[in-house]
Design brief:
Blueprint lengths: L9 E2 L2 E5 L3 E6 L3 E7 L2 E4 L4 E5 L1 H6 L7 E4 L2 E2 L2 E2 L2 H16 L5 E2 L2 E5 L5 H13 L5 E5 H8 L10 E6 L4 E7 L2 E8 L3 H16 L1 E2 L2 H11 L10 E8 L5 E7 H24 L3 H10 L1 E4 L8 H9 L3 E3 L6 H9 L3 H7 E4 L1
Length: 343
């Protein structure tokens, strides 16, 4: 009987965009093989994981009191290392698809300003997932690459990547970062603001999925010219009975505006911090927007108005980081520059 070779037991290089809202896994040679919510459900008494990803999402708002549904990541960092490890492990097994039991190398995007504690939490989670050869890469750099920036470009390129938990602002010249900032504000903050607004204005408790739907339907960074409305269903805050309420675009805009303004102000501060020649490049070229949060209606128009720059939306903006991670496997020099530290 022919025994399998060592190489046949080793899977592709993998890259992981471990997001607050979604986790995406890229397998070298196969592309994006996992794209699911960063959620897991566990049994409270035993702390055993009962569902991950889409299966956990289906349980949200419908499970018993003994089943807790959480995201082990908050604001772009690991909040619970043990459960984050179980999440990563589950998605790595799905990415392998029965092909192997080992991984050559795993890349994980992380904020450039992540603290030692945040690095430790992610290293611990990777260890819990059975990953030994892991490299942390600069999220700002991979967001630029995924948004279409050319590492060989001698002129400056700047990206604003608005994720669920964080907003990353980065600028690059000839493959070198000249600026990178992380703002702990993202799409989830808009959802939370809408949840609170609906509770305060209408006395109705709604879940995150309803808040996200409201944001997609009527959320706007510049305010709609004509008032529009949408119905929401939830639980009455006082009494607990199921009920509906009519929410309008004006109160939606007022709820998200403080968070939109924080992002805009951070972009302006970042532009002011650029070297003079790079600033001239960005004046000519404008900014690139990526990340799922960049799809908020009117967001590009708002930034253009505030900065007086042209704004370009990246192709499939929510996938910019994972695309950028994937390109690193084919660019060894850029990969070396992107690595923050290895574990």
């Amino acid at each position: 009987m022919k025994l399998p070779s060592i190489l046949s037991l080793v899977t592709d290089d993998l890259a992981i965009d471990l997001g607050t809202s979604r986790t995406r896994v890229f397998a070298r040679g196969r592309g994006i093989v996992v794209n699911e919510p960063s959620l897991l459900a566990y049994d409270v008494p035993s702390r055993e994981v009962v569902a991950v990803g889409l299966e956990a999402l289906e349980l949200e708002g419908r499970s018993s009191e003994d089943i807790q549904i959480i995201s082990p990541l908050q604001d772009g960092v690991v909040a619970d290392s043990t459960f984050a490890g179980k999440l990563i492990g589950s998605y790595i097994r799905k990415a392998r698809d029965g092909r192997s039991t080992l991984s050559r190398r795993v890349l994980i995007a992380i904020a450039a300003d992540a603290t030692d504690i945040e690095h430790y939490a992610l290293r611990y989670a990777a260890k819990e997932a059975g990953v030994s050869n892991v490299h942390f890469t600069n999220k700002g750099l991979v967001a630029l690459l995924g948004a279409g920036a050319n590492p060989a470009d001698q002129r400056a390129t700047m990206v604003v990547d608005v994720g669920a938990g964080t907003t990353t602002i980065a600028a690059m010249v000839h493959g070198h970062l000249i600026l990178t900032r992380t703002l702990r504000v993202g799409g989830n903050d808009l959802d939370a603001a809408l949840t609170e607004m609906i509770k305060q204005n209408h006395g109705l408790m709604v879940g995150p999925r309803t808040a996200e739907r409201v944001k997609i339907e009527l959320g706007c960074a510049i305010g709609l010219e004509h008032e529009q409305t949408t119905m929401v269903k939830g639980r009455r805050a006082l009494g607990g009975n199921p009920e509906m309420a009519l929410v309008n675009s004006i109160e939606i805009h007022e709820a998200v505006e403080p968070h939109v303004m924080r992002i805009v102000q951070s972009i302006q501060e970042s532009l002011e911090a650029l070297p003079p020649e790079a600033s001239g490049d960005i004046y000519d070229r404008g900014l690139v927007l990526s990340g799922g949060g960049a799809l908020l209606a009117g967001f590009d128009e708002r930034i253009s108005k505030e900065t007086e720059l042209a704004i370009q939306l990246a192709e499939s903006p929510a996938r910019a980081v994972i695309r950028g991670l994937g390109t690193l496997f084919e660019n060894p020099l850029t990969l070396r520059r992107a690595i923050i530290r290895s574990a």
